[in-house]
Amino acid sequence: MAALRKDWDTYFMDIAFMVSTRSRCPRRHVGTVLVQGKKLLGTAYNGAPMGVQDCSEAGCMIVEEYEPAPAGTSAAAMVKKQRCIRTIHAEQNLLLFTDRVDREGSVVYVTDQPCWTCANMLANSGISEIVYYRPYPKDYDKVAALMEQRGLIFRKLEYYAPPPDTEVQDGS
Ligand SMILES: [Zn+2]
Ligand SMILES: [Zn+2]
C-alpha cells in the first residue's frame, strides 16, 4: 500500500512551518510561502532587516499596548499586551522579496492569521487567496471584513497538524 500522499494545502502549509523555524524571535515564529498554480515562488519569515541585530542577539524590542478584552468579557475592558516590534512580519518580507507579476492571482500560505497591517498590504498585493492555520483573534473581525470586501478567499486550514518541532514552545 502506498504511503498517504499529502494534499496541496498540507504540503504548502508544512513548508510555511518549516520556513518559520528560521525566525530568531523567541516570542513568535511566523512562516509564509507564495504559491502560483502549484509552484512555490517565494518564502519568508518574521525577522529583523538584513545586517541588523535580531532578537536572539539584541533581545526582543517589547512594546506594551492596550487592546480590547476577548469576547465574552465586559465590553469596556481593556487588557495590556506585550509584543515584539523588532521584526518585519513574515507577510511583509514576502512582499519585499517577491515580484508583483508573480503575486497576481497567487495564494499565500501563512502559519498565522495575518495581523491587520499585513492583511491590508496583502489585499493590495495582487494575491487572490490567504490560507492560515493559527488564529489571531485580535484582528480577526476587521481582517475577515476586509477580505470579504476585497473579494479575496480567506480560510483557516482545518484538520491540520504542523510538522513535529516546528512550533515555538514559549509562546508568551
Ligand atoms: Zn522578538
Ligand atoms: Zn503582520
UniProtKB/TrEMBL annotation:
Q: Show the active-site residues.
A: E91 (proton donor)
- Is this entry keyworded Cell inner membrane? no
Q: Name one GO molecular function term.
A: dCMP deaminase activity
Concerning PROSITE patterns, the annotation shows:
CYT_DCMP_DEAMINASES_1 (PS00903), CYT_DCMP_DEAMINASES_2 (PS51747)
Naming one, the record's GO cellular component terms include: cytoplasm
Chain ranges of the CMP/dCMP-type deaminase domain: 7-154
Task: Quote the InterPro entries the UniProt record gives.
Answer: APOBEC/CMP_deaminase_Zn-bd, CMP_dCMP_dom, Cytidine_deaminase-like, dCMP_deaminase, dCMP_deaminase-rel, Deoxycytidylate_deaminase_dom
- Highest taxon, organism lineage: Bacteria
Instruction: Give me the residues that bind Zn(2+), please.
Output: H89, C115, C118
Q: Which cofactor does it need?
A: Zn(2+)
Q: Which Pfam families match?
A: dCMP_cyt_deam_1
Entry keywords, A to Z: Hydrolase, Metal-binding, Zinc
Could you tell me which SUPFAM superfamilies the record lists for this protein? Cytidine deaminase-like
- Residue ranges annotated as coiled coil are none
Gene Ontology process terms (BP): pyrimidine nucleotide metabolic process
**Family, similarity comment:** Belongs to the cytidine and deoxycytidylate deaminase family.
Report what the protein is called: CMP deaminase
